[in-house]
Amino acid sequence: MEVNYEKEKKTLNIEITEEIDHHYADKLRRKIDNEITRYMPRKTIFDFNRVSFMDSAGIGMIIGRYKMMKLIGGDLEIKNANESVNKILEMSGIKKIIKIA
Amino acid sequence: MKSVYDNEMKLEFLSKSNNEAFARITVAAFASQLDPTIEELADIKTAVSEAVTNAIIHGYEDAEGIVKVTARIFANTIEVEISDTGKGIENIDLARKPLYTTKANLERSGMGFTIMESFMDEVQIESVLGLGTKIKMKKMIKKIPLNEEMQELARQYRRQIS
Asked: How far apart are CA A71 and CA A66, in angstroms?
C-alpha cells in the first residue's frame, strides 16, 4: 500500500498494491484506518491500478471505509479498477453509493 | 484403476488465511489446461477464494483445521470441491441469501455464496451441523468454435509441423 496526502486538497490517495482477499483485507483495513485518522481527509481515493484480484472481502473493506469517511464528513472514491474487480464492484451494488472513476 | 476424469488433483492445508491465495492460485493453475479466458480464470479464482475463506472463518472460526480442495477435469468442465470438518451451516437457504452474514462485525459483506453462484455454472452445498461443509462447484470452459477457414489453417499448420 502506498500513501500520498495532498494537503491543499485535503485528499488522501491510497494505492493498493496487493490482492484483496480476507487475509489481506484485515491488514489493509488497519493500515487505512490509521491513515484516515491521522490526516482526517475531506476525500479518500483508492487507486486499484495494481490490484489484480479482489473477492467479497474487498467489498466489506470498502463499505467499512466508506462509512468511516461519511462519519468524519468526507467522501470515498475508487479509481482504476480492472475488469474482474469491476465485476465484483458491480455485483455488490457499491457503484450506487461510491463514485468509481 | 483408471479415473473417469481426464485429470484430478487434491490439496490439503491448514485453515490459515494466508492459504487463501495459495488455494485459488493452485486451482487456477490446474484449470489453465482447459485454456480458459482471463475472465473465466478470474471467475474460478474468486469462487475458490470465497469457499476457502468460508471454510476458514465460518467452518473453523479461526480454530485450526484442515481444508481439503479437490479439482477434477472432465472434457471442458472443471469441478472444484472444497470441504472442511468444522461446525457446519445452520441454515443453508439463509446462508445463500445475498448480503446475509453472521459476521458483520468482521465487515463481511455476505456476498460469498452469491459470487460463487454467479461466477460458476453450478454450486452445491452439503452441510451437517457439527460435522462440516462441502461445496461442490462446476464451470464449463467455453471453447471458441473455429470457422471453416480457421479449421483449414489449423489443418495446414498441423501438416507443417508433423
From this structure: 9
Complex ipTM value = 0.92
CATH of residue B48:
3.30.565.10
Contact predicate A54/B12, CB 8 Å: no
**pLDDT band for position B48 (50/70/90)?**
very high
What is the pTM for the complete model shown?
0.89
Say if B59 is an interface residue toward chain A (CB within 8 Å): no
Residue B1 lies in a domain: no
Chain centroid offset of residue B135 CA:
9
A53 C-beta neighbours (distance < 10 Å), count: 22
Chain B nearest-CA distance from A30, in A, is 12
**pLDDT-derived band at B122, boundaries 50, 70, 90:** very high
Domains and their CATH numbers in chain A: 2-100 (3.30.750.24)
Task: Kindly report the nearest CA distance between residue B128 and chain A, in angstroms.
Answer: 24
Partners of B13 in the β-ladder: B67
- A23 has a chain B CB within 8 A of its CB: yes
Number of domains forming the structure of chain B: 1
Q: From CA B52, how far away is CA B67, in angstroms rounded?
A: 7
CA terminus-to-terminus distance, chain A: 19
All cell numbers assigned to A70: 461519511
Q: Residue B67: which of B129, B8, B13, B10 has the closest Cα?
A: B13
Average per-residue pLDDT in chain A? 95
